[in-house]
Amino acid sequence: MLEKIKDLIAEVEKISVDTKEKAEELRLKYLSKKGVLNEIFAEFKKVKPEEKKEYGQKINSLKTLVESKIAAAQEALEEQLSKPNDLDITLPGPNYNLGSHHPITMVKNEIIEIFSRLGFTVAEGQEIEDDYHNFTALNFPPEHPARDMQDTFFIETNPDILLRTHTSGGQVRVMEKQKPPIRVLVPGRVFRNEAVSARSHCIFHQIEGLYIDKNVSFADLKQTLMYFAKEFYGEKTEIRLRPSYFPFTEPSAEMDVSCSICGGKGCGICKNSGWLEVLGCGMVHPNVLKNCGIDPNEYSGFAFGMGIERTAMLRYGVTDIRMFFENDMKFLSRFKY
Ligand code: PHE
User: Fold this and answer.
1) Which architecture, in CATH terms, is 103-332?
2) Which residues line ligand 1 (CB under 6 A)?
3) Label partner for 308 (CA 20 to 30 A): which of 18, 83, 122, 141?
4) How far does residue 18's CA lie from ligand 1's centre (Å)?
C-alpha cells in the first residue's frame, strides 16, 4: 500500500492542471466521496498500529499535494480572467478620435456663411504679392511706413515681391478682373514683421469684404456691418464707428461692438470700456477704384477687414494668440463640435 501511495504522489505531481475542467477532474478523482483518498483511508484502518504514523504521513502529503494543485490552478485561472484579453474580438475597438476644424477655420467659415446670405462670394488672393497690389494700387504713398522693412517680409532681395501684409491686395485683384457689381470676401493668411507675443503674431489671418456698385453709401456699410455684428456676436450687440485712417478708404472707420462678455457694463476683456474693437472699414478711395479701372464717378463701394485670430479670441475667450499656432491637442480639442 505504501508503494501505491508513492506512485499516486508521483502521478499527481506530473499532471498539469491548467483548466477548470482538469481541476474538477482531479478533485473528483481524489477528494470526492468515492475518490481515491477515501479508498485509501478505508484501507488505512487496517494498517498495523506501529505502521500508522508512516502511512498517515504519506496519505497526508498526497492529500495536500492534490489540494494545492487544485488551489494553484484556480488562482492561475482567476488571474487570467482578471487580465484583459488582447484577443477578445467582442470588445469594442480602440477609440480613434476624429479630427475637427481648427478654431480659425471655424470662425472664418462662420463669417463667410453670414456674409454669403447677403450675396458675398469668396476670392482667395495670393500670399506672395507684389508691391503694386499690396501697397501702390491701394493708394499707399511712396513713403508710407507700412512699406518699411520692419513691417513687411520681402522675398529675397527684390523689394517688389513680398509676403502680403493684409488681404486688401485681394480686392485689387478682384476689381481688376471683375466689373461691378462686386460683392466679395477675401480670407487668408497675412504676414507682418512683428515681435511674437500673446497679443500679436508675425503670421495671422484676415478676412476682407468689398462691395462695389452704383450708389453704395456709408449707410450701406453701417447696415451691413450691424447685420454681421448681430449675427456673429449676438442679437443684443450694438456697434459704434470711430473715425480712423487707411490709405485705401475715405472716410475710414474702426468698428467696435458692445462687449458680449459683460453686455457693455465693463469687464477685464473690454478693459472696462464696454466696447471691443473688431474691424477696420471705410468707403473705397476713388484712387483705388481708378487704379483698378473702375470709374469713381459711376461707382462707389465699401470695404472692411478683420483679424480672424482676434475675432476667435473674443468669441472663445482665448487670451494668447500663440495658442492658435501651437498644435496643442489639449487646446484644439476644446473646439470639437
Ligand atoms: N487692410 C486693413 C488692415 O490690415 C483692414 C481694412 C480692410 C481696413 C478694408 C479697411 C478696409 O488693417
Assistant:
1) 2-Layer Sandwich (3.30)
2) 166, 168, 208, 246, 249, 280-282, 303-305
3) 141
4) 78
